[in-house]
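A quick aside before the break. I want you to see a complete sequence-to-structure record at least once, exactly as it would be stored in a machine-readable document. Don't worry about memorizing anything.
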Amino acid sequence: MLYWILYPLREAASFFNLFGYITFRAAGATFTAMLVAFAAGPAVIRFLRKHQIGQTVREDGPRSHLSKEGTPTMGGLLILVAVLLPVLLWGRLDNRLLMVVLISTIWMGLIGLLDDYLKVIRRCPKGLVGRYKLAGQFILGLAMGIWLCFTPVQPGASPDPAVFPSVRTIDLDSTQEIDIRSTETTVPFIKSVRVDLGLFYILFVALVLAGTANAVNLTDGLDGLATGVSLVSILTFAAMAYLLGNVNFAEYLQFSYLPGVGEVLVFAGAMAGACLGFLWFNAPPASVFMGDTGSLALGGAIGSMAVVTRNELLLFLVGGVFVAEVISVVVQVSWFKRTGRRVFRMAPIHHHFELMGWRESKVVVRFWIIAAILGLLGLTTLKIR
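That is the input. The structure line, written in tokens, reads:
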């Protein structure tokens, strides 16, 4: 919104040129999201507590978690509001990639909201039936895959030469071909290798979105764990979006230039600010939990950012903590069904370390550190190829 209102005023005052810069608007979105979260957080917590929208703790879980019974949940609503308002304020809403990521986040958040509503308010222990939850996630993924495959790159998606005079732009009306096909994905650490999935790319996108959303959901079991780990992934893909959306950086790094993807940095800034603001209330001991509303929204954001930057396979590295959580559950369930014995003391794996005697805060911080290391390794793929 501000881009359309204030950027045209640059001829009257050079200050308004700032609103053409993606980095400036991303910073604005970050601070706005934090302010919204800080301002709305106490009111949201009071509302949830007043209506007794509280967390139910597993009886077979760590004994230290029993004290968390009744802690307000569905705090993911705070994340959604803190992301939506800054993106509408600072983003260019004519950018299809920005809108794809925003819609994916809200859609996943609404699925989580329905699940939380059924579990916490309607007192249905299992919440939204698993097949319905997966159906909603796959509908989003298939729609996103079809849109990306069959919608051509929009004119004007390349950087504005008035703002970036040194950037070489691509004339989208000419016969010059965009560097990357709409059904291709890049392979980390392997230079100039891209895999063209053809129409299977549509199903691939659905698998990425559903898998990422549910992986983040499994990780959301300790105070601040999913929030901090998600923040690292968001910042990593934010850097990817900015660099690959700039012709000069993409050419220097020998990556395919992705017109318009730089605008996703504004969304990433808003999401990072929302995570930081939510973490203020979610840090141990948590005053509010995000619930499925927040965890599925975060997963939708991370998965869709990986898709639009064509770095879906990089998720296995950058989201290594999420991958480990999923694998621990799969191994535990499979082995128990086969032998009647457990591999881990409890799954997901963060509970295993708790039952080994680690304090909750130690598990959370160490998982954050691992996530940061994996995020840095992910960024090295920009040069080590």
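Two observations worth writing down. The radius of gyration is 21 Å. The chain has 14 helices and two strands. We'll return to this after the break.
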